[in-house]
Fold these 3 entries.
Entry 1:
Amino acid sequence: MKGYVILISVVAALGGLLFGFDTAVISGTINFIQPYFGLSEAGLGWTVSSLLLGCIAGVFLAGKAGDHYGRKKVLMLAALLFFISAIGSAAAHELFYFLVARVLGGVAVGVASILSPMYIAELAPAKYRGSLVSLNQLAIVIGILVAFFSNYLLVDSGPNNWRWMLLVMAAPAVLLFFSLFLVPESPRWLVARERNDEALAVLIKTAGKEVAKAELAEIEDTLKIHEESEFSDLLAPKVRPLLFMGMILAVFSQITGINTIMYYAPKIFASVGNSNGSALLQTLAIGFTNVIFTLVAMAIIDRFGRKWMLILGSGGMMTMLLGLSVLFFMHQTSGIMVLVFILGYIACFSASLGAAVWVVIAELFPNRLRSKGMSVAIISLWIACTIVSITFPIMLERLSGGITFLIFAVICLANLLYVWRYVPETKGKTLEELEHQFSK
């Protein structure tokens, strides 16, 4: 049973790998596409963020289509969009076509960002759900690492190096598409479609005969309202606080500055005097740190719990950003300490918010509202990410690195206080138990 659940989770997490790759690969191309397309700093911000605008549309698509057609089929559509985006962006000779391809890739990222963790959460036994949903986050950071590594290897491949960097994504897109034929549909979606016999067969394979029937009965009980759920149902008195919590956590996960590092790391390193090759090599160190500390998060999330991971991680991120801010204020950015503080920040994020926020968002909402609740929360995430990505190069240019990183440090403190005051612990309970707990 464990082997089967792990297989399902790994296949679904390939969506996360493509999510990570597609969002991070742009970082290695920035210093090449900016002169190629003649982009200003503001134009660069919009170009980098074009993918994120597609993400918002993708989350809308995933919420409705995931409920109607199933998690699995919509993930297959995302795989096709990843493939088209890779080919289209690599072949583009005009900015318009480049942006169209990146927006299509963003739609695929938006779909994967909601359906991959949701699909895993709906299939994973409660005891292992935190670790298995975190597997999606591990896949995301591996995708980021692969993007950084391929960018580094291809940086000296000639004037079309950025095209090859973008084309690499086509290979894992094909792998995701065909791998999805090996896995079942979510049992919770099957019950919602009154295909209970199929749902029971899946639960027997994932949870065992002893508990499958009891779990099926729990799912049936939480889905006994058969009418199609609507987004307005999220505003019901017992659901609204969960919606706001999911949205706030999602927004904090972005406005604490993570994607300013992921998207603009080579630009940050180049701005303090490193060559393009050296900047991409240092960015590779970020990718490795991301993977290592995501593994740490996976190891502790079902033992240590979600809440204290978020609190301690926010404190660590704040400390690292304060250190980075001080270096910029003192004009001491030419040494190794910039890299040390950035890696420390990445370590704290990866071991806390990077994994735990996605898990909590997947756990908060009732079965019949999960896809729509996650859609709203993750749309909030991508809107926040878009705003930060557009404004960061302008902030870095006009406010200086010191003030910019100080602002992000203050936001980390606000996140720490919010989690400490309002976010409950969710580890070790089935989704149905959490639903009963939150509905009281």
Entry 2:
Amino acid sequence: MSVDPAKRTAERPLQEPDAQAEAFAVVRQAHQMETTEDYVELIDDLITSQGEARLVEVAERLGISQPSAGKTVARLQREGYVTSEPYRSIFLTEKGKKLADASRERHDVVYQFLLKIGVSDTTAKIDSEGLEHHVSEETLDAFRRIINAR
């Protein structure tokens, strides 16, 4: 079924170039932070549940190779999110813990919102994993209002 181009434009008008560039810049920034947020949240979960986060488990949980995980952990260390030494556990810095907590809170709000609007638990778990990185504070506040509405 094709949609009349005039109708599509009315539903989603073309933005001014500066506004469109700004929107794309926000999305690019969110994409750049996705991996960092996923790693620090996972590392925090592992430390909380098992007392430590080891590279082998980080790689296993993310479904990637240890060398790939190791490269990202090295980057996170350079950026001040984690501390680690070869063949030792990975620890979050204060900066990393703060990011993990914020990421988890966003994730939980998105997950609860999806459940509230009738999305199945399985789908909400999967979808919230991606959406959490792209949600503004304004949208999160709206989600919270809907979650808390009777």
Entry 3:
Amino acid sequence: MKKKEDVPAGLWVRCDACGSTLYSKDKTDNLHVCPECDHHHRVDARTRIEQLVDPESFEEFLGDLISTDPLRFKDRITYRDRLKQLRKATGENEAVAVGRAYIRGRAVVLAVMNPAFIMASMGAVVGEKVTVAAELAAEENLPLIVVTASGGARMQEGMVSLMQMAKTSAALAKLDDAGGLYLVVATDPTTAGVAASFASLGDVILAEPGAMMGFAGPRVIANTIKSELPEGFQTAEFMLQHGFVDRIVKRNDLRREIARIIDYCGK
């Protein structure tokens, strides 16, 4: 009798939304969107960059910046040890990658947040990299594209992380004064301090279908305002209905839509 061979690990994956069992290659080929229910799964920064930019056109800068530990923070483990573990697990130094790139032949400055790195929380390094990206876009008269995906400010850096909201917003104001184009692509989740700063300041705000967007969690908001909340009030679709989002764009259409907006704005 022929011995039954084991199925290789990772060959099949389950959709987080509908529960369908998917062939991993089919999911990857479909840009990590479920072919059964169209759920847009979260992707890391490098995968997103590969999906968006023209082949081999991404030129990263500030990739060597590493967070310090201003509060000497410790919960289960120290913040320094947590960062070391994450750098090893993800191959990334921080929660955002920034650089120059081309999208369908259009030169841009691109920043992509990485939900695999402390849920793309914003500390001093994230704030610095987004700020420098905005300053470079203004200096070189290039569109700035930021793909957001964040749980908000990074508690391990306390007030330092909160200051990044003002820092990034000030840099974007200078980009606006210079006549620059700032385009946000909001993905799941875009929340808290990031939602309250650079994620909400785009000249054009696009969002992926079903992306969670908002400042605080539903229970916190309900307890604060002492009122019932509409169903789905933190979805991209609800935000579109109420004017916070300009357009919902499926992942396989993002490249074309970004290029179209750049052309329309004369950039």
